[in-house]
Amino acid sequence: MMGLPDWAVQAMSVLTQAFVLALGVLALIALVFFVIDRTQTSDAIRRNYPVVGRFRGLFTTLGEFFRQYFFAMDREELPFNRAEREWVYRSARGEGGTVPFGSTKPLTPVGTAIFANSAFPPLDDHAADTQALRIGPTAREPYDAPSFFNISGMSYGALSKPAVRALSRGAGKAGIWMNTGEGGLTEMHLDGGCDIVFQIGTAKYGVRDALGGFSEEKLREVAAIPQVKMFELKLSQGAKPGKGGILPAEKVTAEIAAIRGIPAGQASISPNRHPEVANTEDLLDMIAHLREVTGKPVGFKACIGAYGWLEELCLEIRKRGVDSAPDFFTIDSGDGGTGAAPMALMDNVGLPIRESLPIAVTILERHGLRGRIRIIASGKLLTPGSVAWALASGADFIQCGRGFMFSLGCIQAMKCHKNTCPTGVTTHDKRLQRGLVVAEKSEKVAHYANTVREHVEIIAHSCGVAEPRLLRRKHVRLVQANGRSIPMTAIDYMPPDESGPADLPAQD
Ligand SMILES: Cc1cc2nc3c(=O)[nH]c(=O)nc-3n(C[C@H](O)[C@H](O)[C@H](O)COP(=O)(O)O)c2cc1C
Ligand code: SF4
């Protein structure tokens, strides 16, 4: 070539040859893929459109990651939209829950809750601190729970070691309880000095004997730990009612297997229900037994679908005497979260908390048990508005799971069951856990809990009451199909034809 030095000519020639060679290799690979795609029988698109059909799978996978950054609107995604996630991230960073310009929340969808503000809200010096609320007045060691907002059950196994440790430390700093979930109690749970609610799942991990039944000895050992304040018997969880806990095989490490008393490397599948609890009578027997052995408040967790059994339970309590009542009832929403669950159950089974909470409260009120059985609500109650709604609807406490996962850095990548969580929250891969720095994240957990409480208080004051637990249904209005809102008190959550057997006189 004219004017070009020899070395440049040589370089261009080498580059051209390399380019031709690369093209040749690519063509060869494409040919191999073409033959494979054309002859395989499992994928129709690849069989009809060899090679190019493969890009569909690639784009679908990439779309999962990039949609939330480039395409989804602020209020669009599920299970949580960007506005909700960002609110948690900001709160967790200690930046408060204040935003500029105006709300992006659409207020017209049917069922949207709008709080009715008072014309004359209390002045700041009239606002009251929310007091501790006693759970289990008849237990040998009742629990005066300091906070209305707490951490829901998520097992060590579903969560990583640093995640559990950061939650424990954050809970300790914020003065809230942490529920163990069904994977048993570990040194990480106790690390932050927080109050612990020990959950007994259907496989009884942590308090299980060699045959998979209760070990009273282990129960007593757990109950003797001062940090353990209550026991929660898990009947069901909103994400998978009627199905026991699932920990996929790749997440059952040797350590987790030892804690649970199961073989390593095999999926940990809990039974669909406690074999000993087949009806409401068995449930009360079991609760009485656990309370007797542990001396601490005992309640149960369930997702409500059919609710005739709740009426039966109340009648049975009335028959046996009010002391036989569970000390609390955790109601989990049908759209609650999970480490792993069948989509068929997740998408289709169990009432959402917006419906089940007011129904349960109404049933307990009818039977005069509302004050005796404390209500704990869970399921997408992660922002001040939803927490305030639950308190106004009759909850005494809120347990939140995924809000706290966001405070740990979860980006909603939805890989919790695969041991490849990119933020270290739900993986046992040490390399990925490096991203979750316990000292830093525990601060975020505490900031988040404190900000939620502070902003629920702001809503309560705006409604004219001195503290969040004074919020009532009359403070909430729900948007109807015609675009107008009506007070929540106007809705009959238990029409007469759905009521249970005859009402009993109130005894609170
Ligand atoms: C990773 C993960 C693990 C969970 N593990 C348990 C468990 O062991 N026991 C249980 O009762 N619920 C478990 N849950 C459900 C939560 O406790 C909670 O009921 C549900 O997620 C709804 O609350 P949320 O919307 O605030 O997350 C788990 C949820 C998640 C996301
Ligand atoms: S980042 Fe993804 S995989 Fe990790 S906890 Fe969050 S949703 Fe699960």
UniProtKB/TrEMBL annotation:
Q: Which CDD domains match?
A: GltS_FMN
GO BP terms: namely: glutamate biosynthetic process
Show where the Glutamate synthase domain sits.
147-464
Report if keyword rRNA processing is assigned.
no
- Keywords assigned by UniProt? Membrane, Transmembrane, Transmembrane helix
| Any Pfam family the entry gives | Glu_synthase
Q: Where is region (Disordered) located?
A: 489-508
Could you list the residue ranges that cross the membrane?
12-36
What Gene Ontology terms describe what this protein does at the molecular function level? glutamate synthase activity
Q: Which InterPro entries does the protein's record reference?
A: Aldolase_TIM, GltB, Glu_synthdom
Under the heading PANTHER family, the entry gives: ARCHAEAL-TYPE GLUTAMATE SYNTHASE [NADPH]
| Family as reported in the entry's similarity comment | Belongs to the glutamate synthase family.
Give the protein's recorded name.
Glutamate synthase domain-containing protein 2
Biological source species: Maricaulis salignorans
